[in-house]
């Protein structure tokens, strides 16, 4: 009577094995993509373009797009923010260095770049799938949503930039800094350098 009225253990085992194999293969390719940020972001841009074309073609799903925009704005704030908020750190007695003699503390993001990329890519994929269900196509006047999102973006970014200036941190680095050092005596004397 094991197989009557329900799914028996023999039917669950292949499904669990397939899910495990799929999860392992997905994780393998995700891990292999980690050292290739340019290619990852180009792929996300392609997914975003497909989503925009779908919304444009259907002429709908503006609420889904608005929700997607709010979610991406939230992720951007996490990406630009330090892991430890300096405003809360002041209460504990420690803070970011403000003078040259203070201890150097590197900028560590609250949301690392890989997780930022992965979350945005998943969000575009979920939003794309939502465009195939008419229940999510709520009729709205989209220019109002767009204006509201722009105002929200400007106010949020203004506050974030003020926070960056106040606590003197820069969330971007353009690679490893190189020490040029002093010019050697050979270059100042006119002798050729090796």
From TrEMBL:
Keywords: Membrane, Transmembrane, Transmembrane helix
Transmembrane segments: 63-81, 116-134, 140-158
Membrane topology: Multi-pass membrane protein
UniProt main location, coarse: membrane
Domain of life assignment: Eukaryota
Classification via InterPro entries: Rer1 (IPR004932)
GO aspect biological process, one term: retrograde vesicle-mediated transport, Golgi to endoplasmic reticulum
GO cellular component: endoplasmic reticulum; Golgi membrane
Cellular localization per UniProt: Membrane
Pfam families (UniProt xref): Rer1
Functional description taken from the UniProt entry: Involved in the retrieval of endoplasmic reticulum membrane proteins from the early Golgi compartment.
Family designation: Belongs to the RER1 family.
Name recorded for this polypeptide: Protein RER1
């Amino acid at each position: 009577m094991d197989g009557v009225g329900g799914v028996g253990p023999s039917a669950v085992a292949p499904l669990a094995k397939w899910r495990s194999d799929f999860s392992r293969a997905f994780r393998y390719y995700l891990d292999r993509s980690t050292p290739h940020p340019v290619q990852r972001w180009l792929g996300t841009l392609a997914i975003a373009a497909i989503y925009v074309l779908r919304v444009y073609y259907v002429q709908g799903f503006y609420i889904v797009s608005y929700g997607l925009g709010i979610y991406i704005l939230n992720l951007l704030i996490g990406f630009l923010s330090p892991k430890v908020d300096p405003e809360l750190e002041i209460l504990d007695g420690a803070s970011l260095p403000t003078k040259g003699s203070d201890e150097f503390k590197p900028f560590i993001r609250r949301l690392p770049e890989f997780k930022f990329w992965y979350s945005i890519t998943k969000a575009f994929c979920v939003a794309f799938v939502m465009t195939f269900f008419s229940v999510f196509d709520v009729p709205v006047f989209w220019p109002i949503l767009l204006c509201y999102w722009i105002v929200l973006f400007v106010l949020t970014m203004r506050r974030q930039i003020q926070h960056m200036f106040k606590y003197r941190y820069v969330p971007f680095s353009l690679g490893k800094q190189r020490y040029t050092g002093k010019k050697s005596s050979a270059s100042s004397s006119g002798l050729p350098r090796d």
